[in-house]
Design brief:
Two copies of one chain form a homodimer. The first copy, chain A, is of the alpha/beta class. The first copy, chain A, contains ten helices and eight strands. Chain A is globular, with a radius of gyration of 17 Å. The mean pLDDT of chain A is about 95. The complex binds adenosine-5'-triphosphate (2 copies) and magnesium ion (2 copies).
């Protein structure tokens, strides 16, 4: 039975989508069945796997409108990664984005129903959320087993940790008693910038064992994913970014089997 | 009479807050009276000028609750930048964030009333918005004279331009006929990464004269602003980031007086 994990951060541009795509791909390469679900109306995840744009198949908005079933919107994404699937939002226009946010505002539980139906078929399901803590992110937190927070190794991201922890505690109290911490991931670490060492130290002191040991470096090869439309391990296994996400996947599998 | 300019992008982490703080500071150093208004509940702007946290004075949420007037929430921020002021949100808890978003959801026009009252006293008013296109960003677009979009020189940011243009056209049609483009700013340009040249070329071809000639490089000194709690020109005028924002301020003043 799979784990449902939301990747959240109110701070923008910290690597939520990059982590969903690259960690998902690495876990699937290590024989795990992985589903990635796009809740962010920006369609960033779909863009990383070539599912953005019209006529790429049904998506989450079609399920929310009751014109497709959850099984209809699960798409395979890469011939060399047969255990990786993605559910895109399939939002093309501003009007559809408004419709999507309105459905979620009025009926938060619908996200939970879709995710719970998909859960039995996968080992890991990662939900990519937009940089906000209200809906759709709040709806995701109300359903999942745990949440993961990428923390960019910069001062601007430090404040966001407290906000996510508070929002998660509120959701846990009101809607989802099982909600736990999957982990905090330090990413875009720039060895040359003096503040990286300081940020890494402070985060590890504050969050202790909840911080993954793996540190993802800042690596321009990772920023090519939305252009190449495939995860980094598909085009450069030897890059620092690919190695870090492979190491993270192994760390997660070690920790998961250990408990 | 001042210009009201919203800094928007649905894509997170592209430099909205950094541009508000640093461009604002540079324009004020060039004798302009500049006000920065924080609409983003993350309080990123307040953090960059030392106004975050409790007991730093009233903010936007107090005006929305009718317990303060717009003049009460304008704070000076730096002794060496006497023409720079900031209106923080003054949101401390998740409950206050929910209250804030609910007020804006139910009464979009309240943002307009506050901004219009402040407008006569400044040459430039920049509104820092969260990485989303619905409220509070939508409310800001419904009031301002123009909007500015930072574009990170990476593939992941390319898709966001079309989304912002569409949202702005909709707001212009429904609420704000005067809404114009202030400009697109290419930022975090990393000369070493091959894709920077390609992204810069594509953006300039697509958006032509709407793209500022000034290119802001990726500069770790800029990432220190939230830690030092002052704009980059206050601690390192010679850094590539400071020079770029000074050049941008001059470019804007040249263009503004030229028209
Ligand atoms: N370790 C890394 N090294 C270099 N670039 C990275 C790294 N991780 C992500 N990026 C790039 O940084 C940018 C932001 O990453 P990403 O889009 O994954 O963040 P996000 O948190 O999903 O953003 P949003 O808040 O808009 O959803 C993208 O251009 C991405 O390609
Ligand atoms: N030109 C630059 N060079 C290097 N770092 C930069 C530059 N501009 C901004 N930064 C850093 O990048 C990060 C993101 O910038 P910033 O917070 O201004 O973006 P934002 O668009 O306001 O983010 P959000 O979407 O969360 O509001 C911050 O850590 C900031 O200090
Ligand atoms: Mg994302
Ligand atoms: Mg910001």
């Amino acid at each position: 039975m799979g784990q449902l994990i939301a990747i959240v951060s109110q701070k923008g541009g910290v690597g939520k989508t990059s982590t969903a795509v690259n960690l998902g791909a690495c876990l699937s390469a290590l024989k795990q069945k992985v589903l990635l679900v796009e809740l962010d109306p920006q369609c960033g995840l779909a863009k990383c796997v070539g599912l953005d744009g019209p006529n790429k198949g049904a998506g989450l908005i079609d399920v929310l409108r009751d014109s497709a079933s959850p099984a209809d919107v699960v798409h395979p994404v890469h011939p060399r990664l047969p255990r990786l699937w993605v559910v895109p939002t399939n939002i093309q226009t501003m009007a559809e984005e408004t419709e999507y946010l309105t459905i979620l505002h009025n009926n938060m539980a619908v996200v939970g129903r879709v995710l719970t139906q998909l859960k039995p078929s996968y080992d890991f399901i990662f939900i990519d959320t937009p940089p906000r803590l209200d809906n759709p992110t709040y709806a995701a937190l109300a359903t999942v087993d745990s949440y993961m927070v990428p923390i960019q190794c910069e001062y601007a991201s430090m404040g966001t940790v407290g906000r996510v922890l508070k929002a998660a505690l509120e959701v846990k109290r009101l809607y989802n008693a099982k909600l736990g911490i999957f982990g905090f991931l330090l990413t875009m670490a720039d060895k040359k910038a003096g503040f990286t060492v300081r940020v890494v130290q402070e985060v590890r002191q504050y969050l202790k064992h909840h911080v993954f040991r793996t540190l993802v470096p800042r690596d321009p090869r990772l920023a090519e994913v939305p252009f190449r439309q495939e995860p980094v391990i598909a085009y450069d296994m030897q890059s620092p970014g690919a190695k870090a996400y492979i190491q993270l996947a192994r760390e997660i599998l070690r920790d998961t089997t250990a408990t």
